[in-house]
Amino acid sequence: MNIEIINTGSELMFGLVLNTHQQWLCRQLTDAGYTVSRQTAVPDTGPAIQQIVREALARAEFVIVTGGLGPTSDDLTRDLIAALLGKKLHTDEAILTRLKDFFAQRGRTMPEHTHVQAQVPDGALVLPNPNGTAPGLAMKVSPNPFRPDGKTGWLVMLPGPPRELKPMFTDHVLPLLRQKFPLASTFICRTIRTTGIGESIVEEKIAAPLKPLTDAGLELGYCAHYGEVDVRLVARGADAEKSAAAAEAIIREQLGTHVFGTQDDQLNAVIVRLLTERKETLALAESCTGGYVANRITDVPGASAVFLGGLVTYSNEAKQNLLGVSAETLAEHGAVSAATAREMAEGARKRMGSDYALAITGIAGPGGGTETKPVGTVFIALATARHTFVLNPVNRFDRPTFKQITCQQALELLRRTLVKH
Amino acid sequence: MNIEIINTGSELMFGLVLNTHQQWLCRQLTDAGYTVSRQTAVPDTGPAIQQIVREALARAEFVIVTGGLGPTSDDLTRDLIAALLGKKLHTDEAILTRLKDFFAQRGRTMPEHTHVQAQVPDGALVLPNPNGTAPGLAMKVSPNPFRPDGKTGWLVMLPGPPRELKPMFTDHVLPLLRQKFPLASTFICRTIRTTGIGESIVEEKIAAPLKPLTDAGLELGYCAHYGEVDVRLVARGADAEKSAAAAEAIIREQLGTHVFGTQDDQLNAVIVRLLTERKETLALAESCTGGYVANRITDVPGASAVFLGGLVTYSNEAKQNLLGVSAETLAEHGAVSAATAREMAEGARKRMGSDYALAITGIAGPGGGTETKPVGTVFIALATARHTFVLNPVNRFDRPTFKQITCQQALELLRRTLVKH
User: Fold this and answer.
1) Which architecture characterizes domain A267-420 according to CATH?
2) Could you tell me which residues come within 8 angstroms of residue A47 by beta carbon, excluding any fewer than 6 positions away?
3) What ipTM describes this predicted complex?
4) pLDDT for A43-62, tens place per residue?
5) What is the CATH number of domain A3-180?
């Protein structure tokens, strides 16, 4: 069974927005045991949308189209697909009443063009939208005119805004998919997440021990991110669970503490979990990462139980006043130095009364580098009750990448320290 | 002329990673005057890659394929495309030497499988990769066997890692594209960015005044993000610059201070620019946004000139010790209150010695809500020399969206205050 996702919007072609729907929809489908065979994005012009829907219905039994259901003049998906499938549009009075209520409740007059959102192709299922104005639509295409075998297909149209699309997908599209296309066999996709080791080395360590399983049908994939390598296992059939579990055990044995989690585990969540289990607390003092690490930690629900607070000390004055870094240290070693990082971490730990404190000082760039301290120079300090550790990587990247990688190194320093003690 | 982008990788189909290449490549091409007609992502299996390359070469004159050039066993793009186009692979000695040097310089032995990255299809151009091991490849497809007219196409293969792909695209692919497909006529794509106004209202205000221009061929599009609506103008031909300028003037007149920038302008960069021009400074005190606002401000190069520092005060103790919020205020009104937000902002302004201070306290959720202060309750305070302003929106969203929208509101409060004075 094939599923295809089509995202419409000229803003995607112009590179004005990031297409996050693809990942989100694919992840939901994967977790439910379905696999997407293709993702396509096209401009919101008539010929492009009709052409890709025609092609997708010829290949896939379930096609999801996003975008173009809104109230403005470039929202054409509903009309174009109805025309392609030879369906007339009618006004759905229930939707129209809801639209009028939506605006009335907000004390606003309904803009005239909003009416088009109550138009429904004959025979389509209406998917309610409690979070916006445009309802979704599901159409059974039977017989399917774009397949030689005429096999029935389903075409689902979803609104573009994420907070409208997501609940609509979960509450209506997934149940429809499960009802129309029940799963034939078990499918497991498991990701083992590692850090501090390169992609080639990971493969060298695990490929041979896993060979009996891959020979028997287990699929193995690798994906490198900043400072992380994911190993992906795909197993199918009656033995899927057993095969995936055996593979995971081998990978954990081979890679040891390089494995920091599975599936969607993030280093920030792993750290919050480790600290919560140990009833220990963290404080942060950031210069060049400018709040990135605090933001990552507080992205984790429940972080407030272990994260006492953070200081973003961009200026020397802030480093002195808020963290107690000494004027002598700053004068002698500079703001970007092991000595300053150490005093920042120890100052943050003391002032916040935390068990651990991470401090980061460096030169993110593009400006500010010197001959002895080029752009990318970083000092990361971790203060604990017994010792203060200092790392000195050189991260020569663009500004956002610099923040990401530096944060990853700081969190990994803390994680290793936590799992060792 | 048609350009298509193909991203390969089963991790995309499983929703394990976000496809950021699409946006980046499309944006670069748009800025250079080219338009992408379709983006496709497929799994890294042989049939899927060969099928989409065949289709894309039948439709487009320039096809960019990303991913699958690495050293592991699921990196098949090079081999599959060579086979599809009937080309043999040979070992490129210059690449092999570079690979060996790459590992030698890092004091590592070259893993055996890395050799495949020195394989080049006969007749292909090699695109150097100073940031990694896999070089890119460009192949002239002439005559093009997938088009009835046999018209020459170009197929470019780029490595997946962003910091390898990006410079390779800029330094080698764009010059190749410009040389082989020089632009026929002027093309302008301009985005006018607005905030604090809905998509329908934007269209109601500007569509009629712009009608003479749109009737004459100007294309108009709308794109709503969190708290922002972009208006996109596309103009072509000899009058493109004049037409786009006239349209922008009309939009600015109709929307006034709702317009905060153009093109890639971000609210954070606008604020750093405004503060820099006025030689004024900012401090931050964040509770529920947990460093998100500080991170956004410090994403802007040069932020250090205007941003003195930020405090992430998750605990009540930190609010008292670091910001001087009074115990009475916390006891009487609670940590999430207008009074606490006000004292946080005024405390941050005083302790950091800044001209402005933004403070944010609220309940991000999913836990922590009460009957009188449900999840999503936020207080945003802006302290200035003359007055402290407090906003009290209710942002009922998931945790990451909550942070984004709350940050947007805080930055917009500051921007409006700056442009009014």
Assistant:
1) Alpha-Beta Complex (3.90)
2) none
3) 0.74
4) 988 899 999 999 999 999 99
5) 3.40.980.10
